[in-house]
Amino acid sequence: MANLQQLAQMFKELDDQLVSCMRCGMCQAVCPVFAQTGREADVTRGKLALLDGLAREMLADPDGVNEKLNRCLLCGTCQSNCPSGVRIMDIFLKARAIMTGYFGLSKTKQVIFRGMLANPRLFNALTGMGATFQGLFTKKVDDMLGSSCARFNAPLVADRHFNTLAATPLHRIVPQLDTPAGASGLRVAFFTGCVIDKIFPHVGEAALKVLKEKGVGVFLPSKQACCGIPALSSGDGTTFDKLVAMNMHRFMSGEFDYLLTTCATCTSTIKELWPQMFKGDPALRAEIKELADKTMDISQFLVDILGVQEAEVANGKKVTYHDPCHLKNSLAITVQPRTMIKAAGCTFQEMREAGSCCGCGGSFNVAHYDLSKKIGTRKAENIINSGMDTLATSCPACMLHITDMLSRKNAGIEVKHVIELYADSIKNEG
Amino acid sequence: MKTAISKEFEAIVGETNVMASEVDRHTYSYDAAVLDSEMPSLVVRPENSEALGKTVKLCNDNGLPLTVRGAGTNLSGGTIPHPGGVVVLTNGLNRILELNEEDMYAVVEPGVVTTSLATEAAACGLFYPPDPGSQAVSTLGGNVAENAGGLRGLKYGVTKDYVMGVDFWDVNGNLVKTGSRTVKCASGYNLAGLMVGSEGTLGVFDKLILKLIPPPKTSRSMMAIFSSMKSASETVSAIIAAKIVPATLEIMDNFTIRAVENFRHAGLPTEAAALLLIEVDGHPGQVEEDAVRVEQICREHGASKLKVASDAAERNAVWQARRDALPALAKLKPTCVLEDATVPRSKIPAMIQALDEISQKFALTIGTFGHAGDGNLHPTILTDKRDHKEWQRVEKAIDEIFNRALELGGTLSGEHGIGLAKAKYMVLETNSGTLDYCRRMKSVLDPKGILNPGKIIG
Ligand SMILES: Cc1cc2nc3c(=O)[nH]c(=O)nc-3n(C[C@H](O)[C@H](O)[C@H](O)COP(=O)(O)OP(=O)(O)OC[C@H]3O[C@@H](n4cnc5c(N)ncnc54)[C@H](O)[C@@H]3O)c2cc1C
Ligand code: SF4
Ligand code: SF4
What we know:
The structure holds two protein chains of two kinds. By secondary structure, chain A is an alpha/beta fold. Chain A contains 24 helices and nine strands.
């Protein structure tokens, strides 16, 4: 283990980025964690000051700083509103990596990231078993999933409010796909992502159905791995690099115009973090950049590229929309999913604070479930107050957490992915 | 390890509201000023009025220096604690206690965020005009203690013009009631007035009674482009001389214009030497007349182009450009020193000339924008405080900015307050007799000198 001075040295490498924070405090207006606690150490300015304090050897308690650093949803809201343009997410991820280097990765996380996530077949087998024996082995599966993908967490902690794992994951329903371009003349690759694969396979199916309908050829390679965000947000760059490389090898074998996902988190990870944070095989760099440039959210593709437009209200469904942080803050995608909802023939009504985080975010959910629940409760109240009967969003992680929050309130509101609504409208027409 | 004193604070505010760890304390050691940080020994967060009063008394009983902190956004070091002192947070005191539509006032706790009050007031058809750039986070307590201004200062005044009363705790833990809920009040000393701009050095605000007014019926915004800062600033004087009082009258120099354009690509004229952003508001008939007259004056003074916003989106674009000024400049360099020396508005052309000379003399990049109509410019020095040589020049330049502003009959601070940053210049603006008077007053009201020591009067 390195000593404090060495740790300070490592943080000094972030100095150029850290100094760009002018301590204006404007992040207090937007941070969902700070909104709950009112504590400076929970808001970006405080966290950056703490990292700066370590770099300058003003602080002797890296453990304490690490704890504060982890009280963060990595939602990116502060970054997209920071007047000084501080690259906050980059700083936070790097800081977590430094901390993990210093403290080491916990034994559980070592087993889970390095043993399981980095080994998709084992991961699939274990979760498959979990699905079959759900109930019997719930606790085990919960623990495992809970710390593997941060985004599985919401309903797994304490009393769960619905069955987590799908009986048949997407990789069993559609092991692989390689269809030629149809009427659209386009071909896309489909990155499934863990939560879609194992919990919401029907969202993946809905996307495939829509793409088929639109005459878009699909390349869906087998043996896809996790996008890597859970490892990265725990500071495990080694596993992250391995996962990115595995995925690159799967996708580089196909030819396609765009890479699509139905998961906001996967989209932003591939698009932003793969090129930025990958430290593995240099030969892959150019390809990663190229793939990242081709990566799109499903709604963005359908609206911006295929020109899907709003339709007459047809189905009587009343829908409101929650902006996933990873689409709104990271990629500034807010219009297209709303267009999709209207294109599906639904009545659309904006809720209050549609763009604020649902509270799921990262391993935050496990470590700070109470806080996460408070943030989610506010979201649930805004959803209920919108008076709509369906909540649509674009990220399966948000779907999980919001479902949990809404069912705690017995709201009787359906939670759907935008693409499901649109796929349903196709069925109705045909 | 818990000290006896922290246990006493816990008994008042509850265990979770006393922060003693190194990590927590470090996050209350700074504010938005470019100054060195200082660690408090304890941070306390009262959640009701009584607890606030007891906290103040306990500090005094133990001779502990006390610094009240709202959102910590002040730009003059007002919330940097005294070494070993206690930071008292007000963000647990954030209730709007009364919003009286009939008599048009609000009673609030000091930790209410400025925009929360403005939004609630608007929902009742009323208007709270002071709008500092930090309003989405700044607290009303902080606004009163700094006498904060905003974009609407020219016509609507600053925070002090909306303070009807302040209830505050003195060091002995007595609640002092000042002002009233009435439009007029001549009962006794104007202690509420004394509290405005006191930066936590004379008492700790418990409640504020703030004036609300009816909102203007309509407004019109425009942007005028000039080929020199001189002609732009002369236009400002001419508009005022014509007895027109725009709600907002802002200026931006070429450096700022280019920074903003690079930042948002909204199509600003990057070749323009200066921009004026103007908004007139009020009754539709008068707005119409004023707008035409302002347009004429701009053209008479050489505006090469003038754009009047024709709808909400265009109006928003005009003000977005102004809101972008600070962020756009801040992005250019690691450190940005935002000054707010203010001169009588007829001296704006002279002050702009002075800033130009200062930037050349010290070889510094200074972007200038600000409330031209109020004579309150924000020369913003872009630098990197890690570059020690340049930083020395920055300090000299700041001295000179103050000297020049004072020579022109101006003041050290239009709205950001004195705090630690400008305390040493106070004697230049006033005189030693004034400071002596202030210190004697403080020594009686705060004999142990616990209330935010070192601020304003050193
Ligand atoms: C991006 C940015 C833009 C800004 N724009 C403007 C602007 O346009 N106009 C302007 O005037 N200022 C502006 N400011 C400065 C700052 O926001 C104001 O001074 C604001 O009033 C500070 O409010 P606060 O809640 O952050 O107070 P703090 O910074 O927390 O405190 C300020 C002072 O008030 C005292 N104080 C706070 N609460 C109490 C209380 N209850 N009792 C007694 N004393 C108290 C503190 O001790 C301190 O001395 C800006 C700052 C930033 C960072
Ligand atoms: S908004 Fe940005 S610059 Fe301002 S304090 Fe927060 S992180 Fe720093
Ligand atoms: S990423 Fe989200 S939770 Fe974390 S500091 Fe920023 S706004 Fe707060």
